[in-house]
Amino acid sequence: MSYTKVIPGLVRANSDNIKRICLSQGRFRSTVASKQHKEVEGGKEEQQLVECTVVKAVQADLISQTKNNTDAQTRKIAIDFDNTHEAYKSKDNIELLRSLLVFKLCTFDFLVDKNKELMDLSKKVFGKRLFERLMKMTFYGQFVAGEDHNSIKPLIHKNQAFGVGSVLDYSVEEDLTQEEAEKKEMDSCVSEAEKESPVPAGEHFVMQEHDYSVDHREKKYKAHRQFGDRRGGVVSARTYFYADEAKCDAQMETFLNCIKASGGASVDGFSAVKMTALGRPQFLLQFSEVLVKWRRFFNLLAAQQGKSGMDALEQKLELEQLKESLTKLGVGNKDDIENWFTGEKLGSSGTIDLLDWNSLINDRTKISNLLVIPNVENGQLEPLLRKFTVEEEKQMKRMLQRVDVLAKHAVDNGVRLMVDAEQTYFQPAISRLTLEMQRIFNREKPIIFNTYQCYLKEAYDNVSVDVELSRREGWYFGAKLVRGAYMYQERSRAEEIGYEDPINPDYEATNRMYHKCLEFVLEEIDHNRKANVMVASHNEDTVKFTLGKMNEMGLSPTEKKVYFGQLLGMCDQISFPLGQAGFPVYKYVPYGPVNEVIPYLSRRALENRGFMKGSQRERSLLWKELKRRLLNGQILYKPVY
């Protein structure tokens, strides 16, 4: 598959007219969801429930008379998250004490705020070898699985024996100063052509140090030095900065090794990747801006028909009115516009929705031709930038090629690929690239999973539009739902630069959004067994909400359509009871050399401060289990598996 099939163009334009826009051939489109319900053997499921004391099973009522007879045997499952014996049976007493120590240290503001400086000081005082041993006894041992593919295998196999799988995540980051990070970001997010080209008449560049932009570029999708260090205000997420193409190739090789290790270590494993590790972020910024402006153009046309304020899929434009609007805007002559829709058999129902709008595309041989946007004032399609250098064109192409290589490698190794979410100014492009991979590789089973950040105001629209596309085209939808890792950075950037805050107003609104998105996907699974979701959450209420919905819908854990995910070293009282009850549950498993994962550990400490201050529950459960073992004479307790 060539890179041109990974991502389609938006339109073909030249200075005189807009040529006819084409759909890629062979794409099946249907608005009817498949009804491929998968039967579950009630007897086998019942046997699994009896063997696991953490599970309470009660007979379920029939959800509707139309359900098949298998549903009558489905049992409601309730997990006891207070059962410390089941939650911590995979841990010896030393591991429990380590967890208590680490979680307690994370509640002290001084230690957390100065954790990087204190670790650097400890390294100088104790020396490298003793420092690494100390870290393995505390923070590293708690949150990181090991240094390489071989050293992480014992932990992976132990967790698997207790029902918990792994999402491998190589967590090594460059240890850059803030100034170094800012310079790398500014150099990699600004086009060389913008820096070198003379300013055209009637336009001007905003000239700040390494901040070059044409007037029609939006502030949100430009690099800004004060936010060049993308590590600021971020918890848990890895951060990559572009150096050169050789570095991107090396990072791709790291991901390939991670996929291979995941395939060899467990069945049905996951591996996590980040798009910003695979190429120059300039392309992600610019393509994101193009996608957003095309969607905004659709919203403008919807508003002209009195259909603003609706959910994305509810906005259906009357075809004849749409043609008139486009003609008045000067987008094309009447015959051209007629060909866009009738030539591709769109609008046969008399309306056009957002998915139809997005499908007015055709493959392009030159990636920079993607970056054209509609000018609402004059109706013309204009390039986002004046030109690209030959090298930048190659860089964009190589990024797509690396994505293709990773997806093929995941298929070959029987591993599912989870594409992490990133900042909102990169995310539209990341989601589109991931969507294109899903359309290609998720035809027979879910291989590629996209990540949806539910602290975003537009999260539900994004989820619902992508689910509908998968339904129409007949491929397997795969999603990981998270609350999000960039809230503080996103809010600060929006306020200082001057654009709308993309984040929900408060934590309660984010919870509602998470549950709304989750319920939508669960309903899609209920109607069409081609949807899959990972509930990546440490929130016990969200996990219970999911279990309740699964019970209502008769979704069995043995179908493996709903997964659960937590970070290694956190919330074992959720992960292990779920795993032992037969639910597919996974730990995000970071690994890498001690000195090279310090940036990751530093943020883990920052995240745990807020987490542990907000809840004493995990520490109280750890103490409860330690006391139970001591009272029962299990001082030298060792897990048996």
TrEMBL record:
Chief subcellular site?
mitochondrion
Any Pfam family: Pro_dh
Q: What class of enzyme is it?
A: oxidoreductase
Q: Tell me which EC number(s) this protein carries.
A: 1.5.5.2
Gene Ontology terms for molecular function: FAD binding; proline dehydrogenase activity
Look up the record and name the pathway of this protein. Amino-acid degradation; L-proline degradation into L-glutamate; L-glutamate from L-proline: step 1/2
Which PANTHER family does this entry report, sorted A to Z?
A: PROLINE DEHYDROGENASE 1, MITOCHONDRIAL, PROLINE OXIDASE
* Purpose of the protein: Converts proline to delta-1-pyrroline-5-carboxylate.
Protein name as it appears in the record: Proline dehydrogenase
Q: Which organism is it from?
A: Oncorhynchus mykiss
Q: Which gene encodes it?
A: LOC110523753
